[in-house]
């Protein structure tokens, strides 16, 4: 399992990192490993505003489903649209 040092981690197994003047978020390698084979990812709508800790999506695998929580308060300005058709990418690059 990998734990890149440029990431900040939450207690719910999400991570965030700074890219230019934006924050990028994802789930941890540990979380995807525990879920096993990811088969579906529900992501928030672009433009939605959330508080830290709000549920913003779901990751489903062949053995479980897990909520995705907003790591910080803010607006969703982009999502990984590839996950709609290829959710298994989460297992390769969470």
Q: What does this protein structure show overall?
A:
The chain has 94 residues and is mainly β. Helix content is 12%, strand content 37%. It has two helices and eight strands; from the N terminus they run E-E-E-H-E-E-E-E-E-H. The strands form three sheets. The chain has a three-stranded antiparallel beta sheet with strand order 1-2-3. A three-stranded antiparallel beta sheet has the order 4-6-7. Strand 6 (55-61) and strand 7 form a beta hairpin. The chain is globular, with a radius of gyration of 13 Å.
Provide the β-strand percentage band.
Answer: 35-45%
Work out the oligomeric state of the chains in this entry: single chain
Low-confidence runs (pLDDT<50, min 5 residues)? none
The radius of gyration over CA amounts to: 13 Å
- What summary fits the major beta sheet? 3 strands, antiparallel
Distance N to C terminus: 11 Å
Silhouette: globular
SSE string, helices as H and strands as E: EEEHEEEEEH
Number of helices: 2
How many DSSP E strands?
8
Mean pLDDT across the residues is: 94
Question: What is the spatial order of strands in the main beta sheet?
Answer: 1-2-3
Helix proportion of residues, in percent?
10-25%
Quickly give the structural class. Answer: mainly beta
């Amino acid at each position: 399992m990998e734990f890149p040092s440029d990431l900040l981690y939450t207690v719910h197994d999400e991570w965030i990192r700074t890219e230019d003047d934006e924050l990028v978020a994802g789930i941890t390698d540990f979380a995807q490993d525990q879920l096993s084979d990811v088969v579906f990812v529900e992501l928030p709508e672009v433009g939605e505003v959330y508080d830290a800790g709000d549920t913003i999506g779901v990751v489903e695998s062949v053995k479980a489903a897990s909520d995705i929580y907003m790591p910080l308060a803010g607006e969703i300005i982009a999502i990984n649209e590839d996950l709609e058709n290829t959710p298994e990418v989460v297992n390769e690059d969470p």
